[in-house]
Amino acid sequence: MIGVTRMSQLEKMPFETYLLASLDWDQQTQFERLAPTVLSVPSGRQIGLDYTPCLQGRPPVLALKLQEAFGWQETPRIADGRVAVMIHLLSPARRPLQITQDLRSFWANVYPDVRKEMRGRYPKHPWPENPLSEPATDKTTKRK
What we know:
- This protein is of the alpha+beta class.
- It has two domains: 1-34, no CATH class; 36-144, no CATH class.
- It is built from four helices and seven strands, in the order αααβββββββα.
- The chain is elongated, with a radius of gyration of 19 Å.
């Protein structure tokens, strides 16, 4: 690796930096395509994936506010579609509301109960009856 002359420098380097630096350009490009560090969500934001759970054999995690997932019918997948991302849907206060790898089932079966409970707790945020037809947002109802 260029610029690394001592073992102590290598020990301080994050593992992913060492791993990527050991790959050639084509391998780095393929690695980024198969295991992206961020995903685009329906609200338009780019949100980072947490690969820490992969160390225990679990899928990577995408944590986002529930309102940012409006309109998203299919669970995002990585590794050429082989791995479904675990989605942590958060309240406006960034507390977990639901953890799922099946967005379609969540919207159809769980969301109506979440909506009933959260509308009163977070009245400034959108809680539409049909979240699949509502535009995704990271804003409150007033700022939208």
